[in-house]
């Protein structure tokens, strides 16, 4: 369907008038009309009786006026409609489904001699939109009718959920590393950071460092952060270690539950080597609870490399994060409920 839209936009659909321009001569007959005319791109997809009535049906209920517009302008009108953000994907899908069904109808009539009525075309387009709605918003219950779908989509309000996130103290005699990586662009500036805190929440060591400008992704930067953490851990006297990351992918990979992506295979092997003699736990934490490492990673990009050995050496913004974590102030994550 996407390929058909691309070919249509580039005027590369093999209807008779386009084939003639490519040097292939022959008679022309429009297969989508009972009283055939010459087959042109505009006629097949916009001006024939069935096509015109199909567009009119969907446009009239959507409040769009396509009179005197060409095919590209009709598509752009649907794509650029000033409507609710939640409804934009469905408005943008309508031209795709309509053009696909009109092209299928034309081909059935030309190559198989089968007729597809106007109600059938409208039904097929509506069914495709209905299936898209059910896929994206399964909680919406609406009949297989375009006007009713529009009413339900317009009345629909996304449900939000609030998750409380708290940075937890490590158990007694344990220490906790929080790690993060940042990447701005591909290629672009990248950095990693990690911070070490004891079972009272006091900062013991923190580091943020730039990574040379390459095509590093955020996943690579976060893996680099855990690798540098494991190196620091290997050189320290700490034997009980918790390493937290806001990357679910890395956490599951390092726990051995997910397959390692090839791009970070070497780093994962190094991490395991450095930690093999340590009692360690990998934990996933939401970004809201990983504020200090996130802050340091961005400081490294904005201001350059930094190494911090105590609370006094941290800037006021970082001190606020440390105090909030020690006081167990909750961070709130607000996210839409799927469907």
Automatic annotation (TrEMBL):
<dbReference type="Pfam" id="PF13966">
    <property type="entry name" value="zf-RVT"/>
</dbReference>
<dbReference type="GO" id="GO:0003676">
    <property type="term" value="F:nucleic acid binding"/>
</dbReference>
<dbReference type="InterPro" id="IPR044730">
    <property type="entry name" value="RNase_H-like_dom_plant"/>
</dbReference>
<dbReference type="InterPro" id="IPR026960">
    <property type="entry name" value="RVT-Znf"/>
</dbReference>
<protein>
    <recommendedName>
        <fullName>RNase H type-1 domain-containing protein</fullName>
    </recommendedName>
</protein>
<dbReference type="GO" id="GO:0004523">
    <property type="term" value="F:RNA-DNA hybrid ribonuclease activity"/>
</dbReference>
<dbReference type="Pfam" id="PF13456">
    <property type="entry name" value="RVT_3"/>
</dbReference>
<dbReference type="InterPro" id="IPR053151">
    <property type="entry name" value="RNase_H-like"/>
</dbReference>
<dbReference type="InterPro" id="IPR002156">
    <property type="entry name" value="RNaseH_domain"/>
</dbReference>
<dbReference type="InterPro" id="IPR012337">
    <property type="entry name" value="RNaseH-like_sf"/>
</dbReference>
<feature type="domain" description="RNase H type-1">
    <location>
        <begin position="171"/>
        <end position="302"/>
    </location>
</feature>
<dbReference type="InterPro" id="IPR036397">
    <property type="entry name" value="RNaseH_sf"/>
</dbReference>
């Amino acid at each position: 369907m996407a390929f058909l839209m691309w070919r249509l936009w580039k005027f590369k659909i093999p209807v008779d008038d386009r084939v003639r321009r490519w040097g292939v001569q022959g008679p022309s007959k429009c297969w989508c009309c009972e009283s055939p005319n010459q087959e042109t791109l505009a006629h097949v997809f916009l001006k024939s009786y069935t096509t015109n009535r199909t567009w009119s049906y969907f446009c009239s209920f959507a409040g769009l006026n396509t009179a005197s517009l060409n095919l590209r302008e009709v598509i752009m009108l649907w794509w650029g409609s000033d409507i609710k953000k939640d409804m934009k994907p469905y408005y943008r899908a309508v031209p795709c489904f309509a053009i696909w069904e009109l092209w299928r109808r034309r081909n059935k009539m030309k190559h198989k001699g089968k007729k597809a009525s106007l109600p059938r075309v409208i039904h097929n387009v509506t069914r495709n939109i209905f299936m898209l709605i059910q896929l994206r918003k399964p909680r919406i219950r609406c009949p297989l009718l375009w006007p009713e779908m529009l009413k339900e989509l317009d009345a629909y309000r996304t449900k939000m959920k609030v998750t409380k996130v708290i940075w937890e103290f490590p158990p007694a005699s344990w220490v906790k590393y929080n790690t993060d990586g940042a990447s701005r662009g591909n290629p672009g500036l990248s950095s990693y950071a990690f911070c070490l805190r004891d079972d009272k929440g006091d900062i013991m060591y923190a580091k943020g460092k730039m990574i040379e400008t390459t095509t590093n992704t955020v996943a690579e930067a976060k893996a680099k952060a855990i690798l540098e953490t494991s190196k620091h851990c290997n050189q320290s006297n700490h034997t009980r270690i918790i390493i937290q990351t806001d990357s679910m992918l890395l956490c599951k990979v390092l726990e051995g539950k997910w397959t390692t992506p090839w791009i970070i295979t070497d780093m994962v092997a190094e991490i395991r080597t450095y930690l093999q003699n340590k009692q360690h736990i990998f934990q996933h934490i939401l970004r809201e609870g990983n504020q200090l490492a996130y802050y340091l990673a961005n400081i490294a990009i904005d201001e350059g490399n930094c190494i911090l050995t105590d609370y006094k050496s941290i800037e006021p913004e970082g001190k606020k994060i440390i105090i909030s974590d020690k006081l167990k102030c909750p961070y709130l994550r607000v996210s839409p409920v799927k469907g």
